[in-house]
Amino acid sequence: MKRKEFFKLASAGAAGLTLATSCSKSAQRAVEQTSATEIKKEIPSYRNMIKSSFSTAHGKAPSDRVILALIGAGGYGSRLSMKAARFGENVQIKYICDVDDTRGGWAESELEEIQGFKPQKVRDMRKVFDDEEVDGVFIATPEHWHALATIWACQAGKDVYVEKPISHSIFEGQQMIKAAMKYERIVQCGTQNRIADYAFTARDYIKSGELGDIYAVHVRSLSGNPVPFNPGDDLPTPDTLDWDMWLGPAPKVPYNVSRHRSWYYYWDYGSGFATGGDSIHQLDLARLIIGDPGFPESVYCAGGRYFFDDNRDVPDYQMATFDYGDFVLTLETGQGAPYLQGNRPEERLGDEIPRWMQHSTRIKILGSEKMMYAGRMGAGWQVFDRDEKLVAQDTGYYPLEPHVVNFIDCIRSREKPMGDIVEGHNSNVLIHLANMSYRAGNKQLQFSPEYETILNDEKAASLIRRNYREGFEITDHV
After folding, report:
1. Predicted pLDDT of residue 6
2. Which end of the chain offers a freer environment for a tag, N or C, measured as fewer CB atoms within 10 Å?
């Protein structure tokens, strides 16, 4: 695939601006209905910072060694570091950083076998950032740390691969872009479908007009049997854990194994067990396929704890509807669908196509002429006409390895990574909007694509930016 010119994204970064005219009437109605609410009408400052290119002064020759570190040594983060060491050219993993001493052993032993020596193990990521030899970092912490760790890394002159969802609020995504642009750092998001060839052939098919006018995009992200959440009691912090650093930007609370090990059930640390961590893959892929539209005019999200009346913060099922003016995008996400099936190995790593009717992570795109099904992580796509007539298709391959290698290549070349931070933010805003609507009481929210703010609900608007603990703040100035 031919690379595009680096960071030609000024229009994409302000993608919501193209929708401002179409949503002005609905936005005006919302303001009239809520005259008591003070709406801050200010175009986010990050848009003026987006650059069309970065200096090559910080680049590296293909023969130069790239030195990386892993921050957050769970199973997935460990896998990222091993992919980099195994498939990246002349790459070295110097550090494994985790606040929990019990994690990282698998990565440590595997990396020793791959590169001939063990990485150094540290607890505090700031020790990694202080090392001038380190070129880049993988950030695979719990979600509430993603933004601050990325900003600290950029300030320290490190390039970043940050796992999804990239941010914990709309404000955080904006500040991550500002940091990347100010310090001219590569920031690759962990939305690896952005590098999949079949995603671009699907986009090209839609661009050809064969599907007709797109009027609906339905994104599904459902998993199997739900599990009840049983929070444990507060306990003394284990000696093997730096609990204060684990909490980081989140409120100070006593140690609790449920918060530590099942953090995705709490709003303080994640974007929802149902909505956040997994569905962003499908949302981001759907946006790419239909041409990366900007932000919606409004969102309505209903949901709740339907399967168990337990004490989790987050719902176990949500359905969100995003109004883009000339088309509608829906997101259905949650648990409790054991009759659905995710990608089989033959689909991820072979040429088979999913059984779309009961595929748990499918995308369905309705055009005025034909319809398209698409799947993530190598599942490919198919287009159908009347009477279930198959008229076009493409298969794919699980794209994690090339996505990691793309990050390493961009550290050397200073070119735009395939999963760059601007589109990462644009996709992640949908997750935040869905949760804001749910947390405001399943209320339809009017959204300003121009100002990236809620126009008709103060409670929801307050979630655009969260409070931070002292010492772990994300400020307006990065």
Report:
1. 31
2. N
pTM for the structure as a whole: 0.91
How many other C-beta atoms are found inside a 10 Å radius of the C-beta of residue 259?
22
Q: For position 204, which CATH number holds?
A: 3.30.360.10
CATH number for 166: 3.40.50.720
Q: Is 28 found in the same domain as 174?
A: no
Q: Give the number of domains in the chain.
A: 2
Shared domain for 296 and 347, answered yes or no, is yes
Alpha-carbon distance of 312 to 327, in angstroms, equals 34
Q: What is the DSSP letter of 304?
A: E
The domain in which residue 168 lies consists of: 53-194+401-420
What is the DSSP code string of 5-67? PTT--HHHHTGGGGGTTTTHHHHHHHHHHTTTS-------GGGGG--S---GGG---TTSPEE
CA–CA gap between residue 85 and residue 106 (Å, rounded): 14
Q: For each successive 10 residues of the chain (478 residues), what is the average pLDDT?
A: 34 34 36 48 94 83 92 96 96 98 96 97 98 98 98 98 97 98 98 98 98 98 87 95 98 97 94 76 97 98 91 92 98 92 93 95 98 97 97 97 97 95 97 96 97 95 95 97
- Same domain flag for 234 and 356: yes
Report how far apart the first and last C-alpha atoms of the chain are (Å, whole number). 34
